[in-house]
Amino acid sequence: MIENIGQFLEEAYETAMQKASGKEAVQSELQGEVRKHLDTIIKLSESQKGVLAVTVTSIVYKICNPEQDIRRHQKSIEGGYSGRTFDHNNITPFLRSHKFPAMEESGWLTRSLEQKVPYTLEYPGSISGEGLKNAFLQTLHAIEEENLDCRLALDYILQGLIIQRDKNNIELAIPQNLSINNIIALLLEHFNLPYKAKGQSRLPVLAIYAVYQILCKELKRFENKILLPIESHTSADAQSGRKGDIDVNNADRTPFEAVEVKFDIPISYNIVEIAKEKIQTSAINRYYILSTKGITQGDEEKIEEEIRQIKSVHGCQLVVNGIVPTLKYYLRLVDDTRAFIENYTKLLAEDKAVKFEHKQAWNAVVSRFRQ
């Protein structure tokens, strides 16, 4: 009987670490199809975090409760258990703590996995990812119908996640002695490569934040102001209380300046109207809407009139501009542009929305600029 699930998971993690450290493949007794199924779940875990969470939850719950059919994942299903609660309390916090792919709260928040139907081979839910639905259902089938050793399966998954995570933790290049024009060219190439992984729209947000980290220290305008930590890529402004992607507050924590960043989306009159709603609820001094695209054709005059109205009624200066001209202007204001590059590189390394592909691309682009 496992009394402390957290301790059990940490011990399983330490065992997997000892086996996986420095390895390129999982060391396991598991063979055949089940190994292929687990490899598929691990490989697609970054884009399908819910499936990973539900798989690990099912395996661990089976270890703790051998008599439970873990395919019956909801109490509303006859003979079922609350997989979502077990995941929320134990599995997702564990995955997040070790920087494995993880949902914000639970894998059962994914529509394709929350249906009130057992996870049998006939499960009707639509699970995207080549071969993933079959891999997931076959794994649970093997546990319940073929006596798959759950401890071996858990160890296999943890080793695979460790190997995958450590491959992603690559050292990022920090270019030196670049002119402002070269910095902008470097950023533009990094922003606009044809990525397969999600998170591309986060890159210009990180660039703007990196320059704000310097401006808030060097410019008198930001004296006694507080640059708030950068928000999660998935956080909604209405829920978090933030005004933009980047927020600067007064010393009394009231909003002072905010920046909303749009990637590959032109600034439309509707976007300005949404910003106006945020401005109306505060005494914010300045609000920027920056885009990698221009202003929506035909909306220019309406936007200019709205900017004048907002300034007149609310006292807030709404600034609509491109990301590139904004970065060029700000970089001319800072004392040392090397600090900007260091900030941007650090944010790339730490931000959860940035995937291995984006980091690898940064190093590739930097290497071309060095030639």
Summarize the SSE layout with pairings:
Blueprint: H1 5-20, H2 32-43, H3 49-64, H4 83-97, H5 132-145, H6 150-168, H7 180-192, H8 202-218, E1 226-227, H9 237-240, E2 246-249, E3 255-262, H10 269-280, E4 286-291, H11 300-314, E5 317-322, H12 323-333, H13 337-350, H14 356-370
Structure overview:
The chain is built from 14 helices and five strands. By secondary structure, it is of the alpha/beta class. A five-stranded mixed β-sheet has the order 1-2-3-4-5, with helices on both faces. A hairpin with a 5-residue loop joins strand 2 and strand 3. Helix 7 runs antiparallel to helix 12 and helix 10 packs parallel to helix 11. The N and C termini lie far apart (61 Å). The model has no long low-confidence stretch (mean pLDDT 93).
Summary tags:
alpha/beta; Trna Endonuclease, Chain: A, domain 1; 371 residues; 5-stranded mixed β-sheet
Strand content: 5-15%
Distance between the ends: 61 Å
Quickly name the level 1 CATH class of the largest domain: Alpha Beta
CATH architecture tag of the largest domain: 3-Layer(aba) Sandwich
Mean pLDDT across all amino acids: 93
Please bin the fraction of helical residues.
Answer: 40-55%
Task: Sketch the major β-sheet.
Answer: 5 strands, mixed
- The multimeric state of the shown protein is single chain
User: What's the helix count?
Assistant: 14
DSSP summary, beta strand count: 5
Which word captures the global form?
elongated
